[in-house]
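User: My advisor, Dr. K., asked me to get a structural model of this assembly before our group meeting. I'm new to this, so sorry if the format is off. These are the inputs:
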Amino acid sequence: MSKILDLLRLEYDLTWRYLTLGMVYALIFIAYTASLNVTTGILTLYGGSIVYLQDVASSYMYSFFLLIGLSSYIYSKSIASQISNGLIKTILCYPISRRRLLITKLVTNYLVFLPSGILPELYLQFLYGVDMKVFIALILVFAVKLLFSSTLAILFSVILREPLMSLIGSMLTLYTFEIAPGFLWSIHAEKIAKMLSLNYLIVVLYRALSSPNFLKTIMELDALATVLFSIVFPCIFFLSSLFLFEKMDLD
Amino acid sequence: MSVKLDLIYILDIFFIISVFVIETEGLVKFFGHIKALDDLSIHVPEGISGLIGPNGAGKTTTINILAGLVKPTSGKARVLGLDVWSESLGIRRKTRFMLEGQALPKSVRVFTFLNHVAKLCGSDREEVLKVLGIVGLKDFVDRRIESLSAGMMQRLRLAQALLGSPELIILDEPTANLDPIGRVEILELIAKMNKEYGINFLVSTHILPELEEIAGWVSIIDKGKAVIEGKPGEIIPRGLYNEYRIISSNNKRLMMLLRERGFEVEDKGGYLLVKSDIHWRLYRVLGELEEYRIYVYKIEAVGTSLEEVFRKVIVGE
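Assistant: The format is fine. Below is the predicted structure of the whole assembly, which you can bring to the meeting.
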């Protein structure tokens, strides 16, 4: 256990500096606070009505684009940069398995980013006393989205091994995933749009949390595919990254 | 009969494990279409050994394979009796590496970095302080790594390789970026660590005379193949390389000072040709001359290119 903590500390020291951390938190906080105007406006008007919850989520998640950019940057710095400048080789000369190293990178950076999304939501809760179920749904979806963007950024970093290219690659892919549901909705492919829309997941989670039977509600909302998509895809991304990272030559 | 054969087999295994700390058999590595290693077989015994070869001979690829960073295309390699790919973690528990131009986390402070390494290697801060003293970095503990000179970074690379009480340390070009006195200090340190703590060393270099004094075994490789292996005194006659070309900031003054110290020196116009039987002696004297503010820009032993070594030693010219 202490060895895992040592590795987490090392990863933190290698990737983060106080200035970087401060800037990341400040930018995310500003973006979220700015989106609060829209969000709270909707919440105040409709009292968190389910009909408007997706609008709330969408407005709130605009700032997630910023998070996508920042998390992609951090993972490309933590993995692709370290592969290209040879720092990964230095670390792997010590008794650390490749698998453990990659898991540490995911966990450390994920844990550093997570409060940056939760804190503004706590602020929202403190200011306007949002329905607790909305609050939980927003945090859960934020956590899922962060995991999605993190694992995708790791996969790009491992495949491309070059910081700028992996940053561009992961950002473009994440942007595509963000805008895809809207496009699919416009061409009447609602089922696939629902599946790919993590914002729709907020509605699903809110309803499921409000109902006595969590699983039954998810099934009734025809949202099992959405839930599976949000869990399975990050797993596929990360397992693929692990597989490639364990096999790659670090010459 | 069967018992006898088994016994021979067990003795054979025991002999291999106890005698060779590193062993490769028919190692081949392709990078795309480029063949970096071509059926490389080397056997490195306990003690201090040298892996010598010109640039592009395959030294770094071999060390990367030994560190488990690169997977061999075919062939076998064992370090301390463990397979380099399937048992790499076990090797890295007992072995430390100093890679050529090893990347260091530039924004981290010297002590913080070494403390992290110590924890990962099952060591503690007391050992970090001790190692910092050994490599001469005790006054730089609070400095960020990016602010260190190239020579100090090289010492830091060596420091991280000394942590965690390893059985074997593999060093790739450890004297690169060091001034003459720094080179001697590092080589003397290697000899001292071997003598006092019984640590085995494999030192990769393209400067053959550097290892003459300390190595008990030398493996010479070229174009990805082993050329010759053995004790340096047996395969390379001592004093084969006794002439050095030196270019300094003040050749005339340096010539005078070296002559005062008993060296035969000729001014060749642009550089000095110095005769010295022992590589280290010349380096030590050059180090002592620092007080005269004469800067040595270049020093190279005449006849130490591997092509010349092969011609003289192997072909017998």
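One thing worth pointing out at the meeting: The mean pLDDT of chain A is 83.

User: Perfect, thanks a lot.
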